[in-house]
């Protein structure tokens, strides 16, 4: 008789594997976030509006700042061209917002030009033409009977090449050259309008254009002070000041430094402070909204944490935060663009608006991540049983 031995070792029964959801996990999180938004659309709408107002405030200020920076760079480029040095009078020069160009505040300094160097004196002042305030300049490079308009001022005044205009009692033929906001005429014509106010633009000897010590060399030869910092003003009791556009320390060009002076006037003003405070308030609104959502759904998230889905809770809030901030960014930036186009079209430009929008976009990832992490961190610090108990 055959006998069989029954094993006393318990049989291990494996539970069936948990079925994994098919499809893209990110899309599932997006659908989950959208479902939560549909559950409380009023909270989503209020959060988006609050953050959008803050973003719009920052975008408007940054658009104005970027416009000033572009204006500063364009105005100094209009003066310098490809010159390496700029010698201004002791009274200095200023930017005239009506003429949209740099204007000399005093007579051009007396200058003895060393051998090998090239210097052109440019008279500078203001006049009116066709009801517009324009920057008038005069130098020896312009032919008598001719008025050279930058394309920007030509469009503003409404003149075309070949037309005639009257400046300083002279009838001149219009020629459009360059993109500046100034009108350049022969020196005698300009002198009849602006007197002797002006500056010098200086070119180095051939082959020395890239030398970093041009200003020091020219200053030693002429007795004028020199600087590579556009923020430095001439000594009112001195003879003038040489601005070095190719030397100086640091990676920024003279034009970039000059434009930074313009934009800094906006960002360091009350407008800049208001925009910073507004952005902070928008972030507080977002965090408050997410904290309220966490408190309402703590039991739901307690269940998710108890079955090992704590990471998914974090990802869910990151996705929902991203949706809120992206929607607020779109509304805020478009609203800011419409506002500046309607209120200050003469200052703000599409390029400045795009630069401002890009700058604000750089803050979004950090704000969205931190906005989600703050409430989720508080949530995940609690045990699932505490969340399920509603304590």
Automatic annotation (TrEMBL):
ABC3 transporter permease C-terminal domain location, by residue? 273-368
One Pfam family from the record: FtsX
**GO cellular component, as recorded:** plasma membrane
Keyword Ligase found: no
How this chain sits in the membrane, per its record, is: Multi-pass membrane protein
The record's annotation in InterPro entries points to: ABC-4/HrtB_transporter (IPR051125), ABC3_permease_C (IPR003838)
- Give the UniProt subcellular location, in the record's own words: Cell membrane
Keyword Cell membrane in the entry? The reply is: yes
Q: Which UniProt keywords apply?
A: Cell membrane, Membrane, Transmembrane, Transmembrane helix, Transport
Protein's recorded name: ABC transporter substrate-binding protein
């Amino acid at each position: 008789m055959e006998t069989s031995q029954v094993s006393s070792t318990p049989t291990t029964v494996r539970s069936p594997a948990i079925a994994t959801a098919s499809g893209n996990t990110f899309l599932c999180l997006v659908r989950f976030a959208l479902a939560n938004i549909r559950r409380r659309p009023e909270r989503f709408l209020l959060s988006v509006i609050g953050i959008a107002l803050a973003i719009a405030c920052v975008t408007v200020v940054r658009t104005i700042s970027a416009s000033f920076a572009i204006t500063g760079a364009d105005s100094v480029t209009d003066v310098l061209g490809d010159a390496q040095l700029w010698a201004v009078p002791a009274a200095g020069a200023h930017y005239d917002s009506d003429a949209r160009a740099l204007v000399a505040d005093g007579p051009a300094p007396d200058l003895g030009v060393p051998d090998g160097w090239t210097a052109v004196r440019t008279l500078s002042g203001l006049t009116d033409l066709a009801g517009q305030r324009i920057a008038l300049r005069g130098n020896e490079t312009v032919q008598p009977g001719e008025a050279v308009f930058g394309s920007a001022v030509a469009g503003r005044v409404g003149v075309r090449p070949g037309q005639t205009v009257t400046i300083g009692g002279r009838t001149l033929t219009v020629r459009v050259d360059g993109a500046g906001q100034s009108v350049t005429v022969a020196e005698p014509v300009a002198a009849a309008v602006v007197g002797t106010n002006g500056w010098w633009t200086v070119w180095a000897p051939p082959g020395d254009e890239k030398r970093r010590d041009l200003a020091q060399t020219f200053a030693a030869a002429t007795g004028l002070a020199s600087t590579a910092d556009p923020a430095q003003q001439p000594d009112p009791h001195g003879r003038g000041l040489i601005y070095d556009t190719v030397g100086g320390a640091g990676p920024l060009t003279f034009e970039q430094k000059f434009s930074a002076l313009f934009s800094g006037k906006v960002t360091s003003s009350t407008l800049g402070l208001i925009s910073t405070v507004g952005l902070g308030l928008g972030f507080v609104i977002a965090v408050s909204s997410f904290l309220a959502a966490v408190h309402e759904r703590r039991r739901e998230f307690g269940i998710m944490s108890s079955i090992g889905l704590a990471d998914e809770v974090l990802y869910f809030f990151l996705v929902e935060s991203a949706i809120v901030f992206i929607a607020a960014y779109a509304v805020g930036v478009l609203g800011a663009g419409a506002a500046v186009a309607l209120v200050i079209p003469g200052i703000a430009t599409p390029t400045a608006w795009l630069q401002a929008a890009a700058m604000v976009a750089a803050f979004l990832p950090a704000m969205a991540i931190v906005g989600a992490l703050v409430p989720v961190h508080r949530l995940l610090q609690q045990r699932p049983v505490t969340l399920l108990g509603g304590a």
